[in-house]
Amino acid sequence: MSANSNFLKTTTDLIETSLEIKSFIHQQIIDFQPFITPETLILVIARDPEIKEGDDEMVSDKSYKHRIAIVLKEDESSIEAEAFNDDIYEAIKAAKEELVSRLVEIQSELETSQDRLAAIHQAGSSNQVH
Questions:
Q1: Which has the higher per-residue pLDDT, 115 or 89?
Q2: What is the pLDDT of residues 10-66, one digit of tens each?
Q3: Predicted pLDDT of residue 127
Q4: Parallel, antiparallel, or unpaired: how do β-strands 66-74 and 41-47 relate?
Q5: 3-class SS at 80?
Q6: pLDDT number for residue 1
Q7: Which whole-number Å values give the CA distances from 124 to 114, 118, 121, 128, in the listed order?
């Protein structure tokens, strides 16, 4: 078993067995409430922290102890973010923050489009003559 396999096993063990880390994860995923439905699955996954060439857009010269991914999945759709850190709490928090940031960006784009469509619809149905 390689050193990285040991880190992955350690990270997975921490997520599955540490009540403190489980509690921290639950505190972090509360921030997803505005973006999910009751059918949304939230997965917190420990991945091998060794970044291999071509595996990811992220390239790093440094090896980290923890690589955490948070995935929101519903039906056939999913979105995820991951983070690396030597501190598992920081890795979880960074992955959550990255995912929330992306969700806010998506929500802003959708709301802007919906606002434009509503304004066009309202203008088209207006009976006012100038």
A1: 89
A2: 778 888 888 999 999 999 999 999 999 999 999 999 988 886 655 555 555 578 899
A3: 56
A4: antiparallel
A5: strand
A6: 43
A7: 15, 10, 5, 10
Check residue 87 and give its pLDDT.
Answer: 95
Q: What's the first-to-final CA gap in the chain, in angstroms?
A: 78
pTM over 0.70: yes
How far apart (Å, rounded) are the C-alpha atoms in residues 14 and 88?
9
Q: Which amino acid is it at 34?
A: P
Beta-strand (E) ranges in the chain?
41-47, 66-74, 77-85
Q: Going by C-beta distance under 8 Å and a sequence separation of 6 or more, which residues neighbour residue 5? A: 48
HSE-up (13 A, CA, CB side) for residue 10: 15
